[in-house]
Amino acid sequence: MAGASAYYVNSLEENNFKPNFDEVPEDIWKNCQLLILCSPSNPTGYCLEREDYIDLLNKADKYDFLVCSDECYTDIYESSKTPPTGLLECCDVSQPDSKAVVFHSLSKRSNLAGLRSGFISANESVIKDLLLYRTYHGVTLSLPTQMASKWAWEDTVHVEKNQKDYDKKYEVAISALKDLPEITRPNGGFYIWLNVHGDDQIFARQLYEKNNVIVLPGSYLAFQENNINPGKGYVRIAIVHETKIIEEALTAINDNFSAL
């Protein structure tokens, strides 16, 4: 887009899926204009910590780029634990020299993906540029959508209920994966990132053909960087349906995995 090229940072299981920013070459940092983060991660569920954000913000100051953090999964975490750290907790975006841009959405927090409603936090200069961009490329939300959004952002009761619902869903899902004791709930998000120890596309196709269960091959979610496709050999499982469906689907996944 606009003549830019992307450099992808791998998130590997051997590093607990933490993005390896240390492998990024110096010339990439020097030419960087936007660093795009997703925490909690889709699909791994890895959550960046405060020291990660601080380190990246320091790099942004040194090399003059914006740190754009997509945090739409930040409200989906185990209800008994503390929420994932966000970029807004690590800096003051109101400062004119702030390099932070934070994206939030109602799609996961409130199960309102259809509203296409969210917000962006950044310094005044960045917001002005975004406003100009949206003048030509954006669509204004209708008044009913804005009113529904206002209610959803102000209400926390439904968010807490949603978190407890996900507690039950993950409990059922992990219990169904009885032959995979190493599987645990990630720190954020609503996925299980399953290593199938084989061809992810074949596993997904056979699971659908045999059990009518759909998972997403991990190789479709990544690009090859440094001769590695970090999604290859994994499938993404969405833990979003009713518990009965989750139990049936994850039992089928467990049985297919055990039959490999």
Structure, explained:
It is a single chain. The chain is an alpha/beta fold and 260 residues long. The protein folds into 2 domains: 13-154, Aspartate Aminotransferase, domain 2 (3-Layer(aba) Sandwich); 157-258, Aspartate Aminotransferase, domain 1 (Alpha-Beta Complex), CATH 3.90.1150. The protein is built from 8 helices and 7 strands, in the order H-E-H-E-E-H-E-H-H-H-E-H-E-E-H.
Write the layout of secondary structure elements.
Elements: H1 26-31, E1 34-38, H2 50-63, E2 66-70, E3 100-105, H3 106-109, E4 118-121, H4 124-137, H5 143-154, H6 157-176, E5 191-195, H7 200-211, E6 216-217, E7 234-238, H8 243-258
Parallel strand pairs: 1-2, 2-3
Antiparallel strand pairs: 3-4, 5-7, 6-7
Helix pairs in contact: 6-8, 7-8
Please give a handful of descriptors for the protein shown:
260 residues, alpha/beta, Aspartate Aminotransferase, domain 2, Aspartate Aminotransferase, domain 1, 2 domains, four-stranded mixed beta sheet, three-stranded antiparallel beta sheet, 38% helix
